[in-house]
Write a structure and sequence with these properties.
Helices cover 50% and strands 18% of the residues. By secondary structure, it is α/β, with parallel strands linked by helices. The longest helix is centred in the middle third of the chain and has 19 residues.
């Protein structure tokens, strides 16, 4: 099963992500096809160690893959995966899928996985990995991303809502609240939390942020919305016009704000499916 991207209004900064190997008619007839594919991403050993842990052995993708091979050889990978679940509050027997903190963590984590695949930005800080208590959320921007080609830092926000328009307005509001000097100071003083595809990239961004002030950095925003009220390209385009009035205004805004959507079809059904998959993992 393979996910793909569809540009809205032919704009590469406005994307809808879809399971391209199936039609909407097939997915609506059997939502478990979509939910299984999403859970495969969420419960992947590589993704859990890379995005949801703060181990020194998993700061880059290359190191993460090597570490996983070592755990498999030692036959202790299940134990280490259970440690991650404990840290982020995913108790297999007692997980509360109605908890908004849990839903927020799930959206933040999925955002990192999908944006690394379908945009030009790379995850720099995955907020779900910073949890010090399973019951408490991480404050500030949900995730931090970086475009190594254009040298742009992105503040990220994720929403897991039923209503797309509400999600858009609240995501933009949250991004405005957290776009400040304090957030940049937090990022620069927590470079030990940075992750990257390889050591060269990680070293480069650490050195760049160490030497620059906030005035020297180009900072933009990105949001990820998982919703269940619409799924067609035309419907997303209409929702965006509802939020930004005109295509001209939307194009201006999209130059500073990347917007990515994932139709989930049924939020409640997906959460129930995830709960069942987690218990079996």
């Amino acid at each position: 099963m393979e996910f793909g991207e569809i540009n809205l209004f032919e704009n590469e900064n406005l994307k809808k992500i879809k399971l391209i190997t199936y039609s909407w008619e097939q997915l609506l007839g059997d939502k478990s096809i979509l939910y299984s594919a999403i859970c495969d991403l969420l419960l992947s050993d590589e993704n859990l160690f890379y995005y949801a842990s703060q181990k020194e052995s998993t700061k880059t993708l290359l190191e993460t893959r090597k570490y996983i091979r070592e755990l498999i050889e030692k036959n202790i990978i299940d134990m280490r995966i259970d440690d991650i679940f404990s840290d982020i509050g995913w108790n297999k027997d007692e997980i509360n899928i109605e908890n908004t903190h849990f839903q927020g963590d799930l959206a933040e984590y999925l955002m990192c996985i999908l944006l690394d695949r379908f945009t030009k930005v790379d995850t720099l800080i995955s907020k779900v990995s910073l949890k010090t208590s399973p019951s408490m959320p991480s404050y500030g921007n949900d995730n931090i991303f970086y475009d190594y080609e254009q040298e742009i830092l992105y503040y990220g926000e994720s929403k897991f809502y039923n209503n797309t328009n509400t999600a858009i307005s609240r995501a933009i509001k949250s991004l405005k609240e957290h776009a400040n000097a304090e957030e940049f100071s937090f990022i620069r003083s927590h470079d030990s939390m940075f992750i990257a595809e390889n050591g060269e990239k990680r070293k480069r961004i650490i050195e760049e942020l160490e030497e620059k002030n906030i005035e020297d950095i180009t900072i933009k925003s990105i949001f990820f919305i998982a919703n269940d009220d619409i799924y067609l390209k035309s419907d997303y385009e209409q929702k965006l016009l509802n939020s930004f009035s005109t295509i001209e205004e939307l194009n201006i805004k999209s130059a500073e704000l990347i917007m990515v959507f994932l139709p989930i079809l049924s939020k409640n059904e997906f959460l129930e499916y995830f709960k069942g998959r987690l218990k079996k993992s």
